[in-house]
Amino acid sequence: MKTIILDLTGCKSLWDIHERIRKAFDFPDWYGKNWDAFWDLLWSECDANKVIIKGEQTIPKEYKKHLEIMHSCLDDLIGLRKKYEKYVNAPFTYTIES
Predict the structure, then answer these.
(1) Is the Cα dihedral 39, 94, 23, 83 positive or negative?
(2) Residue 30 gets which letter from DSSP?
(3) Number of Cβ atoms within 10 Å of the Cβ of 48
(4) How many angstroms separate the CA atoms of 18 and 65, rounded?
(5) How far apart are CA 49 and CA 2, in angstroms?
(6) CA trace torsion 15, 21, 27, 32 (10° rounding)
């Protein structure tokens, strides 16, 4: 099982959030740093079984809606992997730690 740790502690901008995502998920340098690009690479390239998200409470309030979008993408990946579990032997989950 592969676990990704996404530490968002101290991110001050959406660019910071996406740069942390790029590094944690080992996305290529050409990652588009938007939620469509995140979803595209998440479902097609992510081989992790679990993501641990840390530091969300440090994100400025104006970016909290972006965390909801990120969570929605992660929830969608859970559903996608469950739907195709007989073809993909890679269950997926994520947790949020304080």
Answers:
(1) negative
(2) T
(3) 20
(4) 14
(5) 5
(6) -30
pTM equals 0.93
d(CA 32, CA 41): 10
CA distance readout (Å), 91 to 8, 73, 75: 24, 15, 12
Q: How far apart are CA 13 and CA 43, in angstroms?
A: 24
Q: In the chain, what are the domain boundaries?
A: 3-97
Q: In sequence order, which residues have a C-beta less than 8 Å from that of residue 57 and are 6 or more positions away?
A: 98
**CA gap 63, 79 in Å, rounded:** 25
Report pLDDT digits (tens) over 35-67.
999 999 999 999 999 999 999 999 999 999 999
Q: 3-97: what fold?
A: Barnase; Chain D (3.30.370)
